[in-house]
Design goal:
Blueprint (H helix, E strand, L loop, with lengths): L10 H56 L12 H13 L11 E3 L2 E8 L6 E9 L2 E9 L6 E12 L9 E3 L3 E3 L4 E4 L8 E3 L7 E3 L4 E2 L3 E3 L6 E3 L4 E2 L5 H4 L3 E3 L8 E2 L10 E2 L12 E7 L6 E2 L4 E9 L2 E5 L4 E9 L10 E5 L4 E3 L12 H4 L4 E12 L4 E4 L1 E9 L4 E5 L2 E3 L3 E3 L4 E5 L11 E2 L2 E5 L5 E3 L2
Parallel strand pairs: 6-9, 6-29, 7-10, 7-30, 8-11, 8-31, 9-12, 10-13, 11-14, 12-15, 17-18, 18-20, 19-21, 20-22, 21-23, 22-24, 22-25, 23-25, 24-26, 25-27, 26-28, 27-29, 27-30, 28-31
Antiparallel strand pairs: 1-2, 2-3, 3-4, 4-5, 5-33, 5-34, 16-32
């Protein structure tokens, strides 16, 4: 009798159970994965909402800062308060702030929470003073979660109107050229251009044989040029040709206010004797000239660095004197140009700018960084005569006169609050400063605030 073969039962059920467990595990894993993705996606959406709220807030703050106007005469210590006052005027009482005010605390301005949408997305903004710049930090919040983001941008003061720097010579008074004077430039539309803001019927007078390589402009719409014989304007002596280079009724630019306080700390040596000894050439560096000193530098004297002059003072450079640096007159009330304040270069002296001096402990980088200016002399009459030569930066003064055989190569601008007289056989060649050169620190314009390029950053909220 053959043995009986027994068959195992339940294998199919076991396999079914195994597959059931496997598929159940896969299903749970798929669910967990899908749920995690949904959570991650939701979190990213909420974070994106908070970042969008922060960036919207930055645009709002940028727009408000663009409306700030800081007067040119505002003291440095009061600038941040002026920014707060302007922002408070622009923003307090508006619907966006819902009755909450802009707040100033020390060196920080706080803009209260502003809601963007009905879902509750919102932002807050703080403006912090960092030196001469502002650091704006905006925190954005999602309306449904605690998700938050923050962005930061630096802002810097920029002139509202610095169009005066587009002219080689800009004068509040009349401009007189003549006697074979030559105003030349490598850039016709800049260095050879003249602006007169005088209300005189003849804001510009050009005597015979004078040459202007660029255009001439005046604010007086009814003004005309008084022109002598053999005059050349913009490369032509034909009136029919140069007529198109004469512009009447141009907009009045802002003339800068003067603040020389940044120069004073570098003037460390007091000039105590107005009588400069003869014989061995005298040497001076970084001097301060007290009121009423009235020195005359002569016989090959050498002066370097900052020459900081307190009013009143009449200063003369004569007989082969060499000046390398910048001359600054500190403004003071009650003094009159020429009578009280006069600066004259004559003889065969030489004047060059700060760029001819090394950067060292005596002439530190901070002094060099004050800008490409060589004479900042408000309330002062400045004169170059004889055969003096100058290779210098911007000149800002009341009256300026070039006479005789004086020759000047100037990088920057000539700005006068009085009259400009360029006469006889003197010559002035004006070229623009190198690209990126800052405006001399002593020249103050009404400013607004604009973002510093490439300063955007996402920071921890």
């Amino acid at each position: 009798m053959l043995p009986r073969i027994s068959h195992r039962r339940g294998v199919t059920s076991m396999l079914a159970m195994m597959y059931l467990v496997l598929f159940a595990t896969l299903a749970v894993g798929f669910y967990a994965s899908t749920n995690t993705s949904a959570i991650v996606s939701s979190n990213e959406q909420h974070r994106s909402n908070s970042l969008m709220a922060a960036e919207s807030g930055m645009e709002y703050t940028r727009f408000q800062l663009a409306g700030v106007r800081v007067p040119a005469t505002k003291a440095d210590s009061l600038v941040f308060t002026e920014i707060y006052n302007d922002l408070a005027t622009l923003m307090n009482g508006t619907a966006n702030l819902t009755g909450k005010p802009v707040v100033l605390t020390g060196t920080t301005i706080r803009i209260p929470q502003i809601k963007l949408y009905s879902n509750g997305d919102r932002f807050t903004s703080t403006i912090t003073q960092l030196g001469k710049q502002l650091q704006v930090t905006v925190r954005g919040y999602d309306g449904k979660t605690t998700a938050a983001s923050a962005v930061q941008i630096s802002f810097q003061a920029v002139p509202v109107d610095a169009s005066i720097l587009d002219y080689g010579i800009a004068s509040l008074g009349k401009v007189r050229l003549g006697g074979d004077f030559d105003l030349a430039t490598d850039t016709q539309e800049y260095g050879g251009s003249i602006l007169s803001a005088s209300s005189d019927p003849n804001p510009l007078e050009i005597k015979k044989e004078a040459t202007i390589s660029g255009d001439v402009s005046f604010v007086n719409a009814a003004g005309t040029i008084k022109i002598g014989s053999k005059v050349t304007i913009a490369g032509s002596s034909d009136p029919a040709v140069y007529a198109s280079h004469i512009h009447a009724g141009v907009p009045m630019p802002e003339f800068p206010s003067i603040n020389v306080s940044a120069y004073k700390p570098f003037a460390t040596n007091i000039l105590t004797n107005a009588k400069i000894p003869k014989g061995t050439p005298a040497y001076f560096n970084n001097i301060i000239v007290p009121p009423g000193t009235n020195p005359k530098f002569t016989d090959g004297a050498v002066l370097e660095g900052i020459i900081y002059v307190q009013m009143p003072n009449i200063i003369v450079f004569d007989k082969s004197v060499t000046v390398r640096g910048v001359i600054v007159y500190e403004p003071a009330a009650g003094f009159i140009k020429e009578k009280d304040n006069h600066l004259e270069f004559k003889g065969s002296g030489t004047f060059t700018g700060m760029d001819t001096l090394p950067v060292n402990a005596t002439f530190p980088k901070a002094l060099h960084d004050l800008g490409y200016a060589s004479i900042i002399a408000p309330q002062t009459d400045v004169k170059f005569t004889g055969s003096s030569n100058a290779t210098i930066g911007t000149i800002v003064t009341d009256d300026l006169k070039l006479d005789g055989h004086a020759n000047m190569l100037l990088t920057g601008n000539v700005i006068t609050f009085g009259e400009t007289k360029l006469e006889k056989k003197a010559s002035l060649n004006i070229v623009p400063p190198p690209a990126g050169t800052p405006i001399p620190s002593a020249l103050r314009f009404t400013t607004r605030y604009a973002p510093v390029p490439y300063s955007y950053d996402e920071v921890k909220p």
